[in-house]
Amino acid sequence: MKEDRLWRRIMELGSIGAHEDSGGVTRLSFTEEERQAKNLVIQYMKEAGLAVREDVIGSVIGRKEGKNPLAPVVLTGSHIDTVPHGGKFDGALGVLAAIEALQHMNEQGIETDHPIEVMAFTDEEGSRFGLGMLGSRALAGTLTLEQLTQTDEQGLTIVEAMRRAGYEPGKLREAAGNPAKVKGYVELHIEQGTVLERNNLSVGIVSGIAGPLWLQFTLTGQAGHAGATPMNARRDPLACASEIMSFIYQETRKVPNAVATVGKIRALPGGVNVIPEQVEFTLDLRDIDESVRNQLEGKVRAYAEQVSREQVIQLEISLLQRVAPAPCSSEIINAAESACQQAGLSPFTLVSGAGHDGMQFTDFCPMGMIFVRSREGISHSPLEWSTPEDCQAGTEVLYHTLFQLAQAR
Q: Residue ranges of the Peptidase M20 dimerisation domain (predicted)?
């Protein structure tokens, strides 16, 4: 495999949607930047000798045929959309490493019994519409037309954005795969944490993925003049929201593997000298144990309702998404462990705290993941970085894993 080719492609793809000031990359779903990125990935897939198609949700698929075209396909890949001002490696590395692995097979004349397909899934991040993993949900057959009515900050629905980008939402069911025709899914991704770095390892094997729960809190009080309204006469939803957020962090710190993030906050009408009338904020709550996460959610909901009643604030809690934690397939874990040994690396397993497309396939097909070391664990940032050597090591492990899974047994 060619380390320089893989690295060049990472940098080339990372230049699409790049901001000159911050160095960050922004490629949101169904935008011109995303279209340019898809076109470049299509070019790479064709250079690798893959047959390329695009499904009705916009996921790009490159296929390397197997000796038996009717055998269940081995899937690999990730996504190429980003968060606002994100990095060059999140998602993109998994797509480009998979293309490199299959290109190496073709260049060496290596055939597998099963076909292998590289997936560049549409909108894993959910940054634009508040609903992530659109492409993987569609393939798993769990994405609904009702979910496509969610809107971005300009009020545009996913349906409308798809139509503007040339897709037909009414054909959504055509993106659903047949589990009987899929042997498994393997995703390579940067770790986005520091476990590998702290253990001085370039590559790790994921044992399972923590499930994200996304909630939106909307608190409505009464607007008023900032100077003329006494403190004890206010119905300030921002004061109420701050108490709820403080409770969230206090309770989450008591749970060993749980993490909570308030990522978006909006106060309306937004004047410096105006007491807000309404406040919205989101909560991202995760744990590898779904029962623990559910207990924590229950505490948060109960406290939010209690403090809102006490302060005469109207509260609405909306569910944006609820994803169950996803254990990885023992078959794929074993294949990845063998692949590490073939690559001269010591097998090492760890849990993924971040969500990934693979978690959509727990009821669809065997699923597994391979992690590549992230410098200082930084991700969703222009400072996101994995070295060329680590990217190459992860790609080699992916290559051997895919080869094993794509052989007849």
A: 211-309
